[in-house]
Write a structure and sequence with these properties.
5 helices; eight-stranded mixed beta sheet
Length: 218
């Protein structure tokens, strides 16, 4: 089976030298790609250029991405080249926001838009407009209509039940086959949510890889 794994962060430019991004090393997605390849699957790993985990697993195809739009283009190209891809594991930490217009507040209170290649600090505080980026997971079912689709839900606020509830919403809203839930709200380990059935607690990354590889093997 051809398995596509996304890993690591996207970034969005603020100006020509600064970026918005997410905390993500790319280690988990890279490890999953390695495990899938070790089990005999054809694997393509899409990993963010700014990921700090740089291991190149043997037998894994590799592509880099930068922005959310760049990751979307990579996925869409893979979908066109191989519409029958068997599984997509979307573990990338896609930036929720892109930078919009930057402003400086004038003495009279009005906001003055700035148009500079590099925003300077000598003028004091700036205001930056944040624009939501497109939800790539919402497009995966159209790109890969017959694939096993697995998303990730990393939650900081709330408790485990709340995090699992958001995972359920992700599955319903995006027509995926399952969701991996983790983060401070979930607590230690990972939660596995199938589209149908009960949530399952997975205590370690190794057990998570076992679970996801078994899904690809079915």
């Amino acid at each position: 089976m051809h398995c596509i794994v996304t890993a690591g962060p996207t970034y969005e430019p603020i100006d020509q030298v600064r970026r918005l991004t997410n905390h993500s090393t790319g280690q988990l997605g890279t490890g999953l790609a390695k495990r899938l390849a070790d089990d005999g699957h054809e694997v393509t790993l899409l990993r963010g250029r700014s990921a700090t985990h740089t291991e190149m697993p043997e037998g894994v195809g590799f592509q880099q991405f930068t922005t959310t739009a760049d990751l979307a283009e990579n996925l869409e190209c893979l979908a066109r080249a191989e519409p029958g891809a068997g599984a997509v594991f979307h573990a990338a930490a896609v930036s929720d926001f892109a930078a919009g217009q930057a402003f400086r507040r004038a003495d009279d209170g009005h906001l003055e838009p700035l148009h500079q290649g590099k925003l300077g600090t000598r003028g004091g505080e700036l205001l930056l407009e944040l624009k939501p980026t497109p939800k790539l997971i919402a497009r995966l079912r159209d790109w890969f209509p017959s694939a096993l689709l697995v998303g990730w839900k990393y939650e900081v606020d709330g408790d485990r039940d709340a995090a699992l509830g958001k995972g359920r919403m992700q599955i319903t809203d995006n027509r995926t086959n399952g969701c991996v839930v983790n983060g401070p709200a979930y607590g230690d380990g990972f939660g596995w949510l199938p589209a149908e059935g009960q949530a399952e607690h997975l205590p370690s990354q190794a057990v998570l890889f076992d679970k996801l590889t078994a899904l690809a093997n079915d």
